[in-house]
Amino acid sequence: MSYQPPYTITPKILHLIAEISENLGRLSVVLEQSSNLRLRRINRIRTIQGSLAIEGNTLTERQITAILEDKPVIAPPREIQEARNALLAYEQLDLWQASNEQHLLDAHQLLMKGLIDKVGVYRHKGVGVMHGDQVIHMAPPANRVNILMADLLSWLKTTPDHALIKSCVFHYEFEFIHPFIDGNGRMGRLWQTLILSQWNPLFVHIPVESMVYAQQQAYYQALNESTLKTDSAPFIEFMLTAILKACVANTPQDNPQASPQVIKLLRVIKGEMSREQLQGVLGLKDRKSFRARYLVPALSAGLIEMTLPDKPNSSLQKYFLTTSGKQLLKGKGDKI
User: Fold this and answer.
1) What is the domain-level CATH number for residue 71?
2) Contact 98, 198 (CB under 8 A)
3) Does an H or E element contain 187, and which?
């Protein structure tokens, strides 16, 4: 009997698939325009920065951009190597087939080159997933990895399920098996992007990984909950929600609405600015009123974003215009 991963297709999953499909239709118009080549490049940087940040890499989007442009960057050599590897790996997505085991091993070799000794080969010893000093998941024994991965790749090749579902199931099952000695997290996210991009090429340019990074704790909770339930539905729901958010964040709304206060805020943002800077430029002294009438509505509408989304209260927090915010201003005749 062929292998069948345990998962339930819930009403929420079906609803999310419908919403994602609807947003992809609108997003295709935006990303396929030649004028949005810069947006596609920015999104690729965000994808890589988000996936690496989950693993503890501290490089910013600007630093990764500099690495892409072969400019000098002052940062730990290992983190620079991780970024270079990831940039190469994501550039080769269209050369790989998701169900091809050799392609999977080749991708791991490229992604982890110079970072560990055993690249492009499955592990030969036991591994556990740690959270601080606590083991939160013991992966299957090493002598089972080859069989488990063969079953998973065979299922991926033959399952009739929707690509959105099978990409999430594969991601979960891959993390459960933990087939490599290191690099499993970034490989799982890379391979989900590959599965999605072979269904719809737009996913090469949608920074899903940055949305996962913004909800890193929930990401791990969904993995753990799925393991406890022996059903990857919680993880599927989490990932589909992240995918939907990534689509919406990059899709201009048909009739974007914003209050006069939000429009004023958008018009004063230049690059990345702190709350104090924004209040100063606007001449506002009441912090509570500024947050309630200006900042929070703009964030909720996806018109601005935080530079540190996982640390909303950080003293280093800054804000910048999103693509939707810039397009809203252009629609009002502003020059961006």
Assistant:
1) 1.10.3290.10
2) yes
3) helix 184-199
